[in-house]
Amino acid sequence: HYMPYKFDYVAPFSGLFIPREEDVARTRNIESLSDYSSPVYRTALAQIDEQFRHAPHLFWIACGEKDFLYKDNIALCLYLEQKGYPFIFHQSEGGHSWKNWQDYLTQLLPMLF
């Protein structure tokens, strides 16, 4: 059971939080995505809202511009912007790769201490 308020630092690397772009296009309203039929996404936006209700110290998103999840990460950033939630988006070259994630970890670690 996920408890958003348990985490002060959130840093998805090439993550997927909300339904795919085609689902956003189909609903035409990002807020209605919380009703998405997949159980993985059904409460995703509510969990993000709960996370920010408890003010995380850092919400850092990283994704490569050639990553197959790049547009999905942009959708997450747009949702966070719409809500006025503070976050940092780090865009890199390349795709969904260990090389990128190693670089992200190197950049993230100093922010944790």
Describe the structure concisely.
By secondary structure, the protein is an alpha/beta fold. 41% of the residues lie in helices and 12% in strands.
Shape: globular
Structural class: alpha/beta
Major beta sheet, strand line-up: 1-2-3
Q: How many helices?
A: 4
Main beta sheet: 3 strands, parallel
Q: How is this structure best described in words?
A:
With 113 residues, the chain is an alpha/beta fold. It has helices spanning 21-27, 44-53, 70-83, 98-112, and strands at 9-10, 58-64, 88-92. Strands 1-2-3 form a three-stranded parallel β-sheet, sandwiched between helices. The radius of gyration is 14 Å and the shape is globular. The mean pLDDT is 81.
Which short descriptors sum up this protein?
113 residues, alpha/beta, three-stranded parallel sheet, 4 helices, 3 strands
Strands, helices and their partners?
Blueprint: E1 9-10, H1 21-27, H2 44-53, E2 58-64, H3 70-83, E3 88-92, H4 98-112
Parallel strand pairs: 1-2, 2-3
